[in-house]
Amino acid sequence: MLADVDAETLCIDADALERVVTAQTRAVIPVHLGGHPADLARINETAARHGLHVVEDAAHAFAAKYQGRAIGGGSNLTAFSFYATKNLTTAEGGMLTGPPELLERARVLSLHGMSRDAWRRYEKGGGWYYEVVEPGFKYNMTDIQAAIGLAQLNKIDVFQRRRREVVAAYSAAFGAEPALQIPIKRPDVEHAWHLYVLRLHLERLRIGRDRFIEELTARNIGTSVHFIPIHLHPYYRDKYGYRPEDFPVAYSNYLRMLSLPLHPGLSDEDVQDVIEAVLDIVEKNRA
Ligand SMILES: *Cc1c(COP(=O)(O)O)cnc(C)c1O
Questions:
Q1: Which secondary-structure segment (H or E) carries 44?
Q2: Confidence bin at 126 (pLDDT 50/70/90)
Q3: Would the pLDDT of 273 be above 90?
Q4: Quick check: pTM over 0.85?
Q5: Hey, whose CA ends up nearest to atom 11 of ligand 1?
Q6: What is the number of the ligand 1 atom nearest to the C-alpha of 31?
Q7: Average pLDDT of span 203-213
Q8: Which residues have a Cβ under 8 Å from the Cβ of 34 and sit 6 or more positions away?
Q9: What single-letter DSSP state applies at residue 142?
Q10: How does DSSP classify residue 148?
Q11: Residue 86 catalytic?
């Protein structure tokens, strides 16, 4: 079951969640989209009332906080991604946080279903004996990836500071432009700023989002769209018979969103280039 998103944060809408929960529902998977934490207080409350698990998709939310606590620091099973594009990377891989018993089970499943001691058998003092306690996978992180991750971890504060500086520059430049809508940050969160999702007020422009992106490309600015809503993808559309307007908030925002370059390697000059390009396109294409 899909639930529509909140019009401001584009994270799951807690009211929409209430409407799709049924007796069959077992868990809810909120995405902290772009690094803005979802409304966990209401999601957790709904989940508790219906006896659901909450599995947080924190792929964008490393270093984010909700009501003063780090995302992943609570009692929900929380999945982070360290894929190449994320705020902290090990090229591929990720991390789970959550209740110790679930993490222990995940650890066993991630290496052939071998009991915990198997991880230690090549260490000094480690024995040869292990047991396969259930059929598992080979989903373990390599030591090389972990070494990259530890080096990244030392730099995460610097990375996040630069992301916030870039965001502040973009939002200062675009905040007063009536054709543009800048991303919001609710007061009770720390935003991980994985993405800077700019939204167009299409009624104030003579061009649509696709053309806006082409104009940016022509000015040598790379952008993307995060994301094409799940219900528009052929597999889900055809299997479940979804129409675009079944999730009107996700759909209408999809049509007017684009993600601007946002990463710690951006120079002040790069940021200025992006700002000038965006404002130039708006100026030349006002309705
Ligand atoms: C990247 C990403 C994932 C998947 O992460 P992997 O490490 O590639 O499995 C999941 N959810 C969101 C929102 C993502 O952006």
A1: helix 40-50
A2: confident
A3: yes
A4: yes
A5: 59
A6: 13
A7: 98
A8: 10, 60, 183, 191, 193, 194, 195, 196, 197, 226
A9: P
A10: H
A11: yes
